[in-house]
Amino acid sequence: MVGRGLLSNPAMFAGYNKTPLECVWDWVDLATNQGTPFTCFHQHLIYMLERTVLLEMTLQWTAVALFLYVEIGVLLILCLPFVSATRWQSIFQLRIWNKMARFWNKFFLAMIIILIVLFLDAVREVRKYSGAGNGKDANLHPNMFDNLHMKLFRAQRNLYISGFSLFLWLVLRRVITLINQLAMASSTTASLQTKAESDNQTAKKYMEDNELLKQTLMDGKGNKATAEGNELLKKEMEKLRGELKGSGEALIKSQSEMEAMKKQSDGLTKEYDRLLKEHQNLQECGDKKVD
Fold it and tell me: N or C end of the chain: which has fewer CB within 10 A?
């Protein structure tokens, strides 16, 4: 009943949860002195160290999986429909983000390098255990094949986790950039609308003043009243022309800025599509190597 447990932990009845290092060294000494065949020695050594290796791999890839879940959660939060891009931009402009902005590029590059290294290591393990599984020997112990398939499954899992983490990290960077661009476009559009409404009100006011001046000229008597009315009308017209000219220049400048931002947004969209295609090609290459 305890045979399998004693194989993985010979010191189980001594109160140890996993095989202690002293027990491993005792097994090495006994196997060396008694001339134990290498297959038997290696198999028992694998049983003893299985939990230790599992713990190390679990801690390593649990961190990567946790990072992947955090990325998914952040993307879902950023895509909430009832939070506008302007609100996100105001959140990004808080002091804490300004302090972290100095280290943002370094952190981004560091995470890219780490994820690429983990991805390449997972590809190497998948190729290693896939090749070993194709050339299996019928004389080997069946448990070794179970262990081999288990390692292959872990390598494939690690490949997918690291690949999706790398892809979502790039997507997260692009989404934040697009949110900032959209917020800037929205603020520019709002300022243009406000200025247009102000110009319309000013033009309406000048039109009313012009109507009043016309009425005054019609009701005025004498050349003096007519001359004063004409002079006042000319001043108002010159002032109105200056206002309209300034509004036109501001409108043209705003339109050029909007076109530049639209071109930049189109470039970011193309870059995102290119990254998506590269990720799909990378996944297809990984799947082909696994097959």
Answer: N
* Rounded CA separation 50/8 (Å): 7
Q: Residue 1: its pLDDT value, please?
A: 65
- pLDDT attached to residue 119: 83
Distance CA 104, CA 140 (A): 52
**CA–CA dist 279, 168 (Å, integer):** 10
Q: SS3 letters for 162-206?
A: HHHHHHHHHHHHHHHHHHHHHHHHHHHHHHHHHHHHHHHHHHHHH
Cβ(265)–Cβ(181) below 8 Å: yes
**CA-based nearest residue to 168, from 117, 120, 108:** 108
Angstrom distances, CA of residue 273 to CA of 76, 164, 267:
19, 16, 10
The rounded percent of the chain whose pLDDT value lies above 90 is: 0
Average pLDDT over residues 217-230: 59
φ, ψ (nearest 5 deg) of residue 220: -70, 155
- Among 177, 164, 145, which residue's Cα sits nearest to residue 61? 164
CA distance 100 to 197: 39
